[in-house]
Amino acid sequence: MITMRTLLVAAAITGALLGGSLSAQDFQPQPQGQARPPLPGLDNGDMSPAEIQKLFDAYLVMEAQQALSLSDQQYPQFLTRLRALQDTRRRNQQERIQIMGQLQRMTNPRAKGADDAAVKERLNALQELESRTAAEMRKAYNVLDEILDVTQQARFRVFEEQIERRKIELLMRARQQNRPNQQPGQQQPPIRRPNQPPPGK
After folding, report:
1. What are phi and psi of 155, to 5 degrees?
2. pTM for this one?
3. Structural Rg of the chain based on CA atoms
4. To 5 degrees, how large is the angle CA 131–CA 136–CA 141?
5. Residues 6+ positions from 143 with CB-CB distance below 8 Å
6. Farthest-apart Cα atoms in the chain, separation
7. Contact criterion met (CB below 8 Å) for 137 and 81
């Protein structure tokens, strides 16, 4: 459920977007060593990932016509098909989160012995979801591409990627800013990937 606080944050961000203080350039990856000021509301730790995703979806809708050089005839059809794409992605993501949560609870070492049959059924459900998601997303992209020329199709993929990177960057920054007992400017230890040897070895 969207809270009043979230609505106020969304209004602040939308106002900044409409006022021109943010642009497609702002959503591109930041050069290494350069800090970017936080966007209003996204660094307070109070917004859920789903709420933040909706804000970025809204930004894409608002900036797409200019970023893709869409004509006035293309834009209404593009919006309808873009929202269908976003709804498809969001619905499948929510279902995946639900299944992964079930698997986590069922295989928690602290829980009593997991029912292998139940775990297998959830794994099968996950596999079926992944196959269905791939097919539905491919169909949604194909429908969207029908009204775009080749250059616009490429621009759309690049624009989506830029927004996704910016979203991840903001989420990571918000998480770091809201960690307890962290001194300002204190660097976090590097994240070590699985099977990666410790530093110095």
Report:
1. -60, -40
2. 0.64
3. 20
4. 130
5. 81, 84, 85
6. 60
7. no
State the pLDDT at residue 32: 46
Q: Tell me how far apart the alpha carbons of residues 86 and 57 are, in angstroms, rounded to a whole number.
A: 7
Q: The tokens 């977007």 sit on which residue?
A: 17
In angstroms, the CA 46 to CA 36 distance is 20
- 106-143 pLDDT, tens per residue? 998 877 767 889 999 999 999 999 999 999 999 999 99
Domain boundaries, given as residue ranges, for the chain = 4-27+39-177
Other Cβ atoms closer than 10 A to 55: 21
